[in-house]
Amino acid sequence: MTKKKYNISVEATLEVIGGKWKCVILCHLTHGKRRTSDLKRIMPGITQKMLTQQLRELEQDGIVNRISYNQVPPKVEYELSEYGGSLKSILDSLCAWGERHIIKEYGDKFAVLEENELNPREAELVSIE
């Protein structure tokens, strides 16, 4: 097997978490275990096929754990692995930068951010008072 060569370390990072959906999936998993159906519900723009593919790749890279429960109907959950948890500070930084960028470009972040558990409007209003 030939060893891979990178020009800069960030290439290795992006090879694992790059693309449109992986960081979004990982951000949701930083808040705990999720079933595939939960992820699909909170990420309405992703297709089932793409979600399954991205989860499989993240599992193969050791970033997420797939937990299968032996029950009927079958139940599967995903969580960050210990190794995947080491990405939390990176993901938090990306979210913070994205929020600053949204405010810079649009002024009101709620004009473009969907309300969900990661973007609660009520919590923001309480903290402003």
From TrEMBL:
Gene3D superfamilies: Winged helix-like DNA-binding domain superfamily/Winged helix DNA-binding domain. SUPFAM superfamilies: Winged helix' DNA-binding domain. PROSITE patterns: HTH_HXLR (PS51118). Residues 8-106 form the HTH hxlR-type domain. Pfam families: HxlR. Keywords: DNA-binding, Transcription, Transcription regulation. It comes from the Bacteria. This is Winged helix-turn-helix transcriptional regulator.
